[in-house]
Amino acid sequence: MIALISILLVLASILLIVVVFVQNPKGGGLSSDFGAAQQLGGVQRTNDFIEKATWVLAGFILVGSILMTSIMKPEKPKVQQGKEQPGGQQGAGGPQGGTAPGQQGGTPQ
Question: Rounded to whole angstroms, what are the CA distances from 100 to 28, 86, 91?
Answer without folding.
Answer: 69, 19, 11
